[in-house]
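Quick one - inputs below.
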Amino acid sequence: MIIAERKPVNEIVEMVRDAERVLVLGCRGCVSVCSAGGEREVELLCSLIRLGKQKAGQPGEVWGATLVRQCDKEYVDEIDQWQGEYDAIVSMACGVGVNFIANLRPLDLVYPAVNTTFFGGSAEQGVWSEQCAGCGDCVLHLTGGLCPVARCAKSLMNGPCGGSVDGRCEIHPEVLCVWQAIHDRLSRFERQEDLARVAPIRDWRPAGHGGPRRTVRDDLTV
Amino acid sequence: MSFTPNLQVFCCHYTSQQACAEGREGLRADGFPANATINRLVCGGKLQVSVLLEAFEKGADGVCVIACPPDQCHNLMGSQRAARRVLAVQKALAELGTEVGRIEMFHLERGFHPEFVRVTREMNEKITELGPSPFRGEQS
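Output:
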């Protein structure tokens, strides 16, 4: 899922200082699962913005709603039902949601309430860790299913840097050295020969270095 | 200028049972602040961050949360959960540039009545020193 974290409240309050009616808009997708922008977080942020505005002496009405997703036109169109009831939208979705609202609603002011951070999963209750970099050229079939692009601090493609200690990364000791983990995992399946392959110089264009990416599925387009 | 704070006390049913049995007049006679309002919860674990923030929105100058000792919750984790939610609100108050001490968590033995009164008095004195909540705006 996409992981996000709420921005500091004062930053958000500053964004909407001129808006008297603020709609805080949550998303039931990834940001609900990582507790950054679902219904519960919408309720809390409404309260925090109200408190911030009260403290700053700014008049205002702050209320919330949550869409099924903010990354599909049909759900973003549901904002129509509140037309005329807000001066600004504070989106608690990931950056995709904010962009979609900006794309589809040229007359609406929209601000981000979260920082979109990475693609990850739940490591434990209340903890999420990065697992995928969305690089567009997956090598997991060669690395035992463990991603060196996202999980190696140096994104090395040809084995460990040599700096790890006791299987821990030299940059972030709390993180496993993913190349150690890849080695251990491939050894378990007697696939160490995969490690002897030399990864070619990587073309990073699919990772977004060639500009915004786009996927077209002719079998699905109408 | 004299100031009487609006103090909201959120307390666990089990922790406050004996104190509340005294009734309003009995508690007041023991020194419980007249300006404090008791909000009883079925358990500290029932407390939500949104409820605590709402208390400040509605004009509380201070909030006092009272629940059982962390390892003696009747529902196992309720008291620990309440403490975490108080911490979340303290963090939010800090973000908003407000004194984090406007909300405090107290873990008290069940039925230990004098302690219940003591912590609310302490909290009342502290909030009186801090002055009106900066969120009250025109309400103050």
